[in-house]
Amino acid sequence: MTSEDRFPVLSALIDREPVDADALALALDEPEGRQVLVDFIKLRGAVISELDIDNPTSVPVVDAKGPGVLRLWRLAAMVLLPLMVGLGGGYWWREREQRRPPTPTRVIQFVPGVDWK
Amino acid sequence: MVVSLTIVGVSRKGTASDAGPLIGFIISAHGVQTSGGEAGGGTVSRHWKADGESGTLSVYKTGESCALGLSSGPPRMPNAEVVWTFDARLVSHNEDGAVVDLVSRREVNDTSLGFSSTADRYRRLYLFEGQPIPLDYAALDQSHGNDCDGYSISASMYFVYPPEVADARLSYDLWLIYTDARGNETTQRIESQSSQGRTADFGFSPLWFDTAGQLSPTGTIGLSVSGNVRGRLLPNGTVHVNLGAVRWVRDRMGSGTAQGGGTSTNIALGETVEVQLPPMSEYVAAFGSIDRLFTGATIAVRVTPRRIA
């Protein structure tokens, strides 16, 4: 089973498809899920480099404002979207941890008749 | 009128260079007025450098005033209407308190006051910081016609801290963790703060259970855990924490029983220690003994001390 199979919601997020927020929260709840998200972002960065996105011929011109503006928007989205997802996930993770009691290093027991009455 | 006497002594374990806390021994003495208020009085203290040191403190009453005078040493006015003398000796001390041997006597030179002299009384006092022990209450004969009811005297102790921790302020991250027989956790978190050596009270919101022992906001069996925490930050960065907890099980009318206990331990700043309460066995009139409802359930309090100033 690949990471995409296990975490389809992350794959969909990277592809900028609609995702279920609860499914995304569950995926980010797992350490492997967070690692997969980071891997996807790295992969996307590598793909962008290989596609030579700066070559005008590889970018379809569909915006009336011109190819330069469209390219800038796409570049900004590709950079900012994963960043925002990462920051949001980190904040969510931190908040979640603060709602959990800390793990004790020691356990003491009250003993009835001795220090408990 | 209440007279309160506090003797303060200071003691240090180990060598003179040891940075451990010193111990103060205090006698507090106050007049108590019939209106319920406190009249004049005050405290007097002695500082001892080591176990075995001793000292005398005294309290005296003169004139019509409800106030008392105090002195660190033998009575300044041995012919006063009333003179209390306290000979105290620091027997030992540890991180929780001090043991003091005390010989006290009351000499009454004015027999019209309504109370009389006493012979020497020997007592061994087990003193904990912030918990005074009453030593004497002498009620005045009301035919004197003033508003002074009597005199109250008590003893207490405190620790004298090194400068680097004397003004510390501590916070306590407190978690209540109720775990049912199936392992499901219900938690609450509160934070208490207090200054060095002072007590902070805490109280978690009650948990309600139905008559099957299951959590239910509309249940009729209430479980409340409250208590207090007192910490002394030591120069080595650990906090000597005294944790007191009371567990109260009751019905909706407030009828129930409470059990409680206290323990102490050293905890590093930022470290978390769990204190587990015994299995519930309280008796609630409306339900009888509740232990059968909570078989396998556990209740614990976790505490994490931090220095905030």
Q: Poorly predicted ranges of chain A (pLDDT <50, ≥5 residues)?
A: 56-62
Give the mean pLDDT of chain B: 88
> Roughly what fraction of the amino acids of chain A lie in strands?
under 5%
> Domains counted in the coordinates of chain B: how many?
2
Helical stretch count of chain B? 1
Number of strands of chain B: 21
Q: Helical percent range of chain B?
A: under 10%
Q: Biggest sheet of chain A, open or closed, and with what strands and sense?
A: none
- Report the biggest beta sheet of chain B as strand number plus sense, adding barrel if it closes: 5 strands, antiparallel
Beginning-to-end CA distance, first to last residue of chain B = 40 Å
| Overall outline of chain A | elongated
Termini separation of chain A (Å)?
Answer: 57 Å
Tally the beta strands of chain A: 1
**N-to-C order of helices and strands of chain A:** HHHHHE
Can you describe this structure in just a few lines?
The complex is a heterodimer of chains A (117) and B (309). In chain A, 62% of the residues lie in helices and 3% in strands.
Structure description:
- Chain A is mostly helical.
- Chain A has one domain.
- Chain A has five helices and one strand.
- Chain A has helices spanning 3-6, 8-14, 21-29, 31-51, 67-98; one strand spanning 106-109.
- Chain B is mostly beta strands.
- In chain B, 1% of the residues lie in helices and 57% in strands.
- Chain B has one helix at 163-166; strands at 6-7, 22-33, 38-47, 54-61, 69-71, 82-93, 97-108, 121-128, 133-139, 148-160, 169-179, 185-195, 199-203, 207-209, 221-233, 238-250, 256-268, 273-277, 283-284, 288-289, 298-307.
- In chain B, strands 1, 2, 3, 9 and 10 form a five-stranded antiparallel β-sheet that branches. In chain B, strands 5-4-6-7-8 form a five-stranded antiparallel β-sheet, with no helix packed on it.
- Chain B starts with 5 loop residues before the first strand and ends with a strand.
